């Protein structure tokens, strides 16, 4: 009885922590933290000790905000022009129609698969713009010079944008997948809508892909160019990190339609976490290695260059390959060969909210038979390769993205397992990695385990 009462008492406390304390801390602290990290990378020789020293002895937290302007009209004009360009590309560039995962309410989101073309057009425009400016004695690295202003202004704009999304989800939702939690703070943090669209523009595709990841790619290019301008050459480490990150992002856009079926899109609502995260956290935190290297170039030498590039490329290939296997198995309804042998798949049943039954193909071959989230290993090893170019000179900043990603992916694997358990019951992917072993004999009746 005492235990039961304790468990009941734990419910509201855990809920309070998860839905109020953690969101509040993240909303208050993360925007500040990314500004401090920018400041440390650009003004403190990339040293957190130097940052701490300046914060304690030379003006406190206001020091960082004093170094940037949130009232620079040219910065706002550039941000809005970039957003308008991306929106135009989303609307005008052709692409085949593709579909996201059916939601529990039976909604199947439809997309135009034009991400790769939009990305190529953006990068080509940037290249052409750079040549044009350089011929006139100008340079796009002015973006680096004003990056603090860009980040600070984006933080404010994005916080306001997330508020707008939150209200939109309550007053004018786009699809059936929306609702309030009863906690205003959590609604702001998590969002009120799963698939918001404004004038036909899918908001999460815009924030995550066309803004966040595109700005990441552009920032990597701008920082490499700035490094060249400052040091008269692109240092080998900068070249390796830029090449690996740009290839990773090119791979992402090639595979973008697959991203529409990941938990960012099918589970996470459009709120502070995903939208602010992609509008501000990706351009600031995910770009830290390149930002750091602009002022702290570290020559790594030919042997390390070759090793990091080689291992990084191999990691990228394995990560893409495993995502591809999962996608190909679904597309072929399980009728395909994986690693030269007929694929083993689980046909897992689940129900929509209205009771209608559906079936999914879950791959249990290839990388998906090795372990449940095996593809996170190459994702992490690739990240380590593009960070290790900064050397081991006692700097923490270049390794912060790797540390963050390790925690994020660890947590994500539990989130996804829970999501699949709730959806498929005992037949979900948590079973998939067991199916090579004796445990597959204990699969329940609703589980059809096939090798085609
Ligand atoms: N750099 C970064 O910040 C991050 C990068 N990534 C990368 O993004 C890519 C995609 O992310 P990922 O986390 O995998 O996406 P998700 O974990 O969101 O995709 C998982 C979904 O795939 C389906 N699924 C799970 N197991 C199987 C299976 N055995 N066969 C078929 N379908 C299955 C399930 O959806 P359903 O409901 O359809 O069954 C599941 O919910 C990866 O390359 C990852 O490394 C990921 C997170 C962060
Ligand atoms: C505290 C918050 C501000 C943290 C926000 C985190 C989000 C910005 C990130 C959470 C998951 C991330 C991503 C998932 C999968 C991806 C596919 C990959 O190939 C490219 C990167 C990404 C889109 C990545 C982007 C950032 C997140 C959405």
Automatic annotation (TrEMBL):
<dbReference type="InterPro" id="IPR018083">
    <property type="entry name" value="Sterol_reductase_CS"/>
</dbReference>
<feature type="transmembrane region" description="Helical">
    <location>
        <begin position="270"/>
        <end position="294"/>
    </location>
</feature>
<feature type="transmembrane region" description="Helical">
    <location>
        <begin position="300"/>
        <end position="321"/>
    </location>
</feature>
<dbReference type="GO" id="GO:0005789">
    <property type="term" value="C:endoplasmic reticulum membrane"/>
</dbReference>
<dbReference type="GO" id="GO:0047598">
    <property type="term" value="F:7-dehydrocholesterol reductase activity"/>
</dbReference>
<keyword id="KW-0753">Steroid metabolism</keyword>
<keyword id="KW-0752">Steroid biosynthesis</keyword>
<feature type="transmembrane region" description="Helical">
    <location>
        <begin position="153"/>
        <end position="171"/>
    </location>
</feature>
<dbReference type="Pfam" id="PF01222">
    <property type="entry name" value="ERG4_ERG24"/>
</dbReference>
<feature type="transmembrane region" description="Helical">
    <location>
        <begin position="62"/>
        <end position="93"/>
    </location>
</feature>
<comment type="pathway">
    <text>Steroid biosynthesis; cholesterol biosynthesis.</text>
</comment>
<keyword id="KW-1133">Transmembrane helix</keyword>
<keyword id="KW-0152">Cholesterol biosynthesis</keyword>
<dbReference type="InterPro" id="IPR001171">
    <property type="entry name" value="ERG24_DHCR-like"/>
</dbReference>
<dbReference type="GO" id="GO:0006695">
    <property type="term" value="P:cholesterol biosynthetic process"/>
</dbReference>
<keyword id="KW-0153">Cholesterol metabolism</keyword>
<keyword id="KW-0521">NADP</keyword>
<keyword id="KW-1207">Sterol metabolism</keyword>
<protein>
    <recommendedName>
        <fullName>7-dehydrocholesterol reductase</fullName>
        <ecNumber>1.3.1.21</ecNumber>
    </recommendedName>
</protein>
<comment type="similarity">
    <text>Belongs to the ERG4/ERG24 family.</text>
</comment>
<keyword id="KW-0256">Endoplasmic reticulum</keyword>
<keyword id="KW-0472">Membrane</keyword>
<keyword id="KW-0756">Sterol biosynthesis</keyword>
<feature type="transmembrane region" description="Helical">
    <location>
        <begin position="205"/>
        <end position="224"/>
    </location>
</feature>
<feature type="transmembrane region" description="Helical">
    <location>
        <begin position="114"/>
        <end position="133"/>
    </location>
</feature>
<keyword id="KW-0444">Lipid biosynthesis</keyword>
<feature type="transmembrane region" description="Helical">
    <location>
        <begin position="21"/>
        <end position="42"/>
    </location>
</feature>
<dbReference type="GO" id="GO:0016132">
    <property type="term" value="P:brassinosteroid biosynthetic process"/>
</dbReference>
<keyword id="KW-0812">Transmembrane</keyword>
<keyword id="KW-0560">Oxidoreductase</keyword>
<feature type="transmembrane region" description="Helical">
    <location>
        <begin position="384"/>
        <end position="410"/>
    </location>
</feature>
<keyword id="KW-0443">Lipid metabolism</keyword>
């Amino acid at each position: 009885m005492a235990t039961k009462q304790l468990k009941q008492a734990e419910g509201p406390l855990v809920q309070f922590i998860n839905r109020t304390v953690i969101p509040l801390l993240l909303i208050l602290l993360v925007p500040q933290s990314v500004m401090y990290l920018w400041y440390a990378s650009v003004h403190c020789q990339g040293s957190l000790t130097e940052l701490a020293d300046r914060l304690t002895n030379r003006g406190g937290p206001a020091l960082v905000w004093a170094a940037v302007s949130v009232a620079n009209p040219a910065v706002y004009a550039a941000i809005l022009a970039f957003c308008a360009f991306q929106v135009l590309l989303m609307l005008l560039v052709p692409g085949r129609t593709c579909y996201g995962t059916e939601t529990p309410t039976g909604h199947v989101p439809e997309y135009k698969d034009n991400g790769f073309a939009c990305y190529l057009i953006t990068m080509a425009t940037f290249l052409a713009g750079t040549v044009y400016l350089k011929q006139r004695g100008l340079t796009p690295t002015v973006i680096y010079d004003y990056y603090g202003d860009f980040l600070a202004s984006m933080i404010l704009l994005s916080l306001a944008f997330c508020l707008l999304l939150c209200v939109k989800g309550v007053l004018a939702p786009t699809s059936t997948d929306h609702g309030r939690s009863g906690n205003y703070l959590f609604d702001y943090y998590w969002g009120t809508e799963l698939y918001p669209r404004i004038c036909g523009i899918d908001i999460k595709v815009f924030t995550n892909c066309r803004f966040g990841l595109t700005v990441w790619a552009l920032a990597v290019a701008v920082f490499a160019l700035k490094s060249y301008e400052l040091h008269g050459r692109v240092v080998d480490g900068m070249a390796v990190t830029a090449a690996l990150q740009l290839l990773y992002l090119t791979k992402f856009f090639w595979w973008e339609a697959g991203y529409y079926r990941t938990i960012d899109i099918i589970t996470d609502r459009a709120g502070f976490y995903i939208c602010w995260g992609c509008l501000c956290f990706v351009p600031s935190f995910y770009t830290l290695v390149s930002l750091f290297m602009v002022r702290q170039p570290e020559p790594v030498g030919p042997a390390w260059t070759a090793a990091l590039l080689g291992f990084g490329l191999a990691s990228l290939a394995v990560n893409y390959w495993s995502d591809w296997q999962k996608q190909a198995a679904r597309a072929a309804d399980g009728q395909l060969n994986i690693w030269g042998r007929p694929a083993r798949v689980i046909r897992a049943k689940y129900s929509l909210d209205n009771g209608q039954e559906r079936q999914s193909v879950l791959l249990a071959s290839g990388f998906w038979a090795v372990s449940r989230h095996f593809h996170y290993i190459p994702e992490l090893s690739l990240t380590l390769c593009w960070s290790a170019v900064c050397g081991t000179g006692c700097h923490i900043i270049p390794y912060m993205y790797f540390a963050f990603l390790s925690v994020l992916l660890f947590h994500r694997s539990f989130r996804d397992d829970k999501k699949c358990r709730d959806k498929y019951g005992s037949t979900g992917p948590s079973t998939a990695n067991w199916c090579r072993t004796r445990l597959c004999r204990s699969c329940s009746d609703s589980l059809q385990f096939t090798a085609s």
